[in-house]
């Protein structure tokens, strides 16, 4: 049974067929007699953390380019099924994570390695995922990112175990990527000060080194917030050919 888009809406799965853009039908799992072949998108938002796992037992082929999971916990094997075609271009996780069969968390760098052709990467970290961040994690993440392909990198609820200086070096070397970094509200003052120094330096050198950056952290100066927003809009418009 070929399905183009598969979405979980309120309390039910809905889907559309390959030739239908907006004509969605309810998918009754109990009535599904043939295995599913999903060709474009899976979008799931629910408080049932195993909902995606339950439907994957019905899936035989997954060619999706867009994956968005909210409040989901899936195994590594399930994730590999979701991305098995190698076609993932847009990856969005919100309060979701992937686990090995032994229950350990798959770190962000290992996820990035599995989706080398991704162009949009967005992840709002849950507490479990936050605990996996180390300096080594960031080193491996940087190695896994393909800056020639990745267009947008967004990470939210970032813990202070995130080696920012290491990632800042990567950002400086790859200014064409659109970055959005939002840090956990419990970061220490020293960490905030480090972030502020980076932001102030970026603003001071912005005429020489264009960049696309949205960043949010505790104790951030209001002046730098406004200045960064203005710079972001300017460089975004220029990149899109509006200047």
Q: Could you walk me through the main structural features you see in this protein, from its secondary elements to its overall organization?
A:
With 243 residues, this protein is of the alpha/beta class. It has two domains: 1-85, no CATH class; 107-243, Leucine-rich repeat, LRR (right-handed beta-alpha superhelix) (Alpha-Beta Horseshoe). It contains eight helices and 13 strands. The chain has helices at residues 51-56, 76-82, 108-114, 127-130, 135-144, 164-173, 189-204, 222-239, and strands at 2-9, 12-16, 25-27, 36-45, 59-62, 66-70, 73-75, 90-94, 97-99, 120-124, 152-158, 178-183, 212-216. The strands form two sheets. Strands 1, 2, 3, 4, 5, 6, 8, 10, 11, 12 and 13 form an eleven-stranded mixed β-sheet that branches. It has a two-stranded parallel ribbon with strand order 7-9. Helix 3 (108-114) packs parallel to helix 5 (135-144) and helix 7 (189-204) packs across helix 8. The chain starts with a strand and ends with a helix. The relative contact order is 0.08. The mean pLDDT is 92.
Decide which structural class fits the backbone: alpha/beta
On the 0 to 100 scale, the average pLDDT is 92
Q: Kindly estimate the percentage of residues that lie in beta strands according to DSSP.
A: 25-35%
CA distance, first residue to last residue: 47 Å
The total domain count is 2
CATH topology of the largest domain: Leucine-rich repeat, LRR (right-handed beta-alpha superhelix)
Overall shape: elongated
C-alpha-based Rg, rounded: 20 Å
Low-pLDDT runs of 5+ residues are none
The biggest sheet, with number of strands, parallel, antiparallel or mixed sense and barrel status, is: 11 strands, mixed
- The CATH top-level class label of the largest domain: Alpha Beta
Q: Provide the succession of SSEs.
A: EEEEHEEEHEEHEHHEHEHEH
Amount of helix: 25-40%
How many H/I helical runs?
8
Task: Kindly state the number of beta strands.
Answer: 13
CATH-scheme architecture of the largest domain: Alpha-Beta Horseshoe
